[in-house]
Amino acid sequence: MPGTGVFPHLSPDSIRLGAAFLLGAALLFVAVRPARGHVLRLVLLWGGSVLLRILSSQALLNLPSAAPTLHFLALLLQGIAFLGLAAILVFDLLLPLGRVSVPRIARDLAVGLSWVGLLLWLFSVHQVDVTGIVATSAVVTAVIGFSLQDTLANVMGGIALQLEGAVEPGDWVKFGDTSGRVRETAWRHTAIETRNGDTLLVPNSVLVKTPLLLCGKAGGRTVPLERRWVFFGVDHRTAPALVLETVREALTREPIPNVAAEPAPSVVLMDFRESWASYAARYWLTDLLLDDPTDSVVRTRVATALKRAGIPLSMPAHANFVTVEEEGHRARHEGRDRQARLAALESVPLFAALTAEERERLAPGLVRAPFAPGEAMVVQGRQVHDLYILTHGAADVRITVPGTPPRVVSRIAAPDIFGEMGMLTGEPRRATVIAVGETECWRLGKEKFREVLHERPAIAEAISRILASRQVELVAATEGLSEESRRHRIEAEHETLLTRIERFFSLGPRPQAPEKDGR
Predict the structure, then answer these.
(1) How far apart are CA 310 and CA 302, in angstroms?
(2) Which of residues 325 and 413 earns the better pLDDT score?
(3) Which of 10, 260, 320, 426 is the most exposed place for a label (fewest CB within 10 A)?
(4) The pTM is what?
């Protein structure tokens, strides 16, 4: 082999090979950030092979018998370094670019077999009797295999898991009492990350012998879906049909984060207990990591919907509540509730035309309507004849136009109202209103308002004028209407709204204004 300078083994081919290795290492160092540490170790390994070449060249002068061994080791380190670089190129760069995922154990097996091939090739180049080595090592292999049978069982179990592909990184599994996500399957064990931030290392030999529950992968789903059960109890005095419909409607009227829209959530009656009925809200979880937080949101929706419908949750039959009622206790409680209803009505400019007596008559028709965060208070397109008085919290007004995603157009905050057009004219909801945080409302239905309106139909005149003014003011702010145009628009809108209110509430004909004599 021709030499260069004082180092005969550093030939021009060796220098070119070294330059190519260093260039490839530099490119992979830049392109594959997670493998930078591995690249640096391979560069050090290559440096070790260069050092051994230099030592072998010096040994030719001082210790000729050691030169072949040093040269053999230099070639071995050089080959290992090249194979390591090739593994990074293939498994960390090219295959990920093609979106091909290769298990770690398969990569290790490929690299290990390439090392064995390299070693056999070096033995043949240096004319080493491989047959003798294999025959001599058979006994040693048997002894090692017997003493390491557990380790070998884990290795074979890991290979079996990889070949079958039944358990892959990212799968959610339940092993005994532990559930979590599979991080990787190594030679000896499979690592399972739990929801609590722990890592469970299960020997592969145990894993292949023990039943393993794959969560959310029934039916060959690519995206896991797991059905969750949220149990609650309601007193027997409430009709089951009312409970089922109330909770089902609350869970489906507005999407819940991490809850699948299809299959849709459902509610079932599970059992009859001593003094209450057991129900379950069932839904499909899309992110298995967020099981408890999503259960909490569903429970909040259930509790709020039941409270809004006046359905109390169950209490144990043996629970005893002792209330010491002094004289006037009930009267004070009813008085506070009455004042809260009147205050809500007085905060609505729409009812400014009502007398104090009329507000007193209307107050018993108000029903408390709490809403949970993210819950739809009204839904666009539905015909529900209720007006809502927002007394605590805020809500987003969302518009949905066919062909475009829903968008929030405004936010209302207490004290305010919404749904007045539905109650007064019966028109479908123009927008969806979503609760922002915990909100408290009073709901007023059409029938209770009808009683007051039929007693004094003139109220419709005042209310329609207030509504017309509000609507035209919004238009005037955007279109820049003149004062004269604004007045004409208000009169026209007032007449239209008044006619719709009269028709919706079946009010009698309005009295005709007296004709002027023209004098």
Answers:
(1) 12
(2) 413
(3) 320
(4) 0.64
